[in-house]
Every structure is written in C-alpha cells, then in structure tokens.
Amino acid sequence: SLRRVEGEIYSKRGETLVKGLAACGVCHGQISDPESPLIGGRVVEDIYGEVTAPNITPGKTGLGDWTTTEIMQAIRNSINKDEEDISQAVHKGYLWMSDEDLLAVVGYLKSLTPYENEVDRRHVSFVSRNTTGFWESKKEVKGHVPAIIPTDKVAYGEYLVNHVANCAFCHNSPSTLLRGESFLGGGKTIKREGVERVAPPLHNGQDSSIFGWSEKDIIHYLKTGMTPENNAINPLFCPTNFYRNAPEQEIEAIAAYLKTVPPS
C-alpha cells in the first residue's frame, strides 16, 4: 500500500538521498547540515519572493497526518495535501525522480523523530500568480516513473543532476520575456542567510566554472568543496557537505555527465 511505507519500502536508500544529493536539509533543516533535524524555518527565494521551508518531520505540525501519496504529490507535483499549490521552483526537477527513489525518500521521512515547529504558509495572491507567475507553467506527472540504470554512467548522471540534486534551481540562467532559462548557464543570484552569490555556469563551455576540470577534479570538488585551485566554496551555495555523503557511483556519474553538457 502507498499509504503505509514504514518498515516496508523504507531503506538506507532514502537516508542516503535525503542526506546526500537531494540535500533536503539545505531548505528544511534547522541549519544547512545533513544531520540537522528537518523542522523547517529556513528562507529560500522563488519568483514570488521569500518562502519559508516547512517542517517535514512526522510531527503534527509537519507531515504527521500526510499519506505517502500526498507527500509524493508535494515533492513531485508541488501540490500539498489540501490540493493547494506550493513553490514549484524549489522542487523543480523532482517531478521526474523515479518512483523507487521517491518512495525511499518518503519512507525515510516517515521514519524520522517527530518535531513540532509550526511554519506559517505563504499565500500568493491571484494577482501575483497572474502577473509575476504568468509564464510559470504547471506540469503534472501521472503514472510510473522508472529508475535509470546506474551502469549507464552518463544517463544516470543526467538523472541525478536534473532530478535528484536539482542543480538547475541555482545554475540555470534566469528566463526573460524573450527567452527561457538557459540550461546550467549560470547568472542567477542566490541569497542565503543574508549573503548573495551569482551561480556560475556548469556546462562544458569556456565560460563555465568547471571548464578545464577533469572528471577527477569534479569528483574531488563534490566530496570536499575544494576546487582544483584549492579554493573552498561556501557550502551554503553548493551543499558539498551533503554531496560527500553520496555513493561513489553517483558522484562519478555526475562528473561524467557534466563533462558532456554543451554551452547553452
């Protein structure tokens, strides 16, 4: 049954995803750390402005009475248990997370220690949705989403970058009235805890932050947060403190895929 995954579908895989590439604690943690309780309260930004991440522990003020299907719908389709829209931008890409991985995440979330932390929900007005959000398209995935075979390294890396680590949220170029987002083209301003940084390109072009890096360089960076020039990148802006928990196979697949991404 999709309504009960405790002790059934829950596996180490869910914990590996939440504390690894999915990096749920970047938004939902008390602090941006893999071991921080996922009680919410951290502020992120989307096209409508600031939004506060909710408590996603099984507490009454969190996901306590949510079914597995409802949690999956929130992650994948950005709709809460009351059929209300939640921020699409912060979940961008998750709509194509495989059923296997998504169920593992949900199972792990349901296994957590419940915490109580009431987080006020943002309400976006009708006017804002039809002005600021005019070009925001709503997508919904129905049916089974299969897993990608890890032995196909580049295809698996593409899946992890786009549908688990959700790199596009920060690294896609912002859209304009004349053009859509540029895939991993950089240029978006990211705000974290009062600090701003401009996300760099992640494609394989000459203006990319990883141009000239080998796959080994990318793997080393994802594990340590250190560039080949021995510069440390603030994990608030690239959560390598989470990524280092990912299995070696996943890190290697991401490195292989990023080396194939052309300039957009």
Folded structure, characterized:
The structure is a single chain. With 264 residues, this protein is mainly α. The chain folds into two domains: 12-129; 153-258, Cytochrome Bc1 Complex, Chain D, domain 2 (Orthogonal Bundle). It is built from ten helices and four strands. It has helices spanning 12-18, 25-28, 68-77, 99-111, 126-129, 153-163, 168-171, 215-224, 240-243, 248-258, and strands spanning 43-46, 49-52, 189-192, 195-198.
How would you describe this structure in keywords?
264 residues, mainly alpha, Cytochrome Bc1 Complex, Chain D, domain 2, 2 domains, two-stranded antiparallel ribbon, 6% strand, metal-binding, metal ion binding, heme, Cytochrome_c-type_DH
Computed Rg: 18 Å
**Beta-strand residue percentage:** 5-15%
The profile of the biggest β sheet is: 2 strands, antiparallel
Overall pLDDT:
87
Catalogue the unreliable spans: none
**Shape summary:** globular
Quick summary:
The protein has about 260 residues and is mainly alpha-helical. Helices cover about 30% and strands about 5% of the residues. The chain folds into two domains: about 10-130; about 155-260, Cytochrome Bc1 Complex, Chain D, domain 2 (Orthogonal Bundle), CATH 1.10.760.
List the helices and strands and how they pair.
Layout: H1 12-18, H2 25-28, E1 43-46, E2 49-52, H3 68-77, H4 99-111, H5 126-129, H6 153-163, H7 168-171, E3 189-192, E4 195-198, H8 215-224, H9 240-243, H10 248-258
Antiparallel strand pairs: 1-2, 3-4
Helix pairs in contact: 1-4, 3-4, 6-10, 8-10
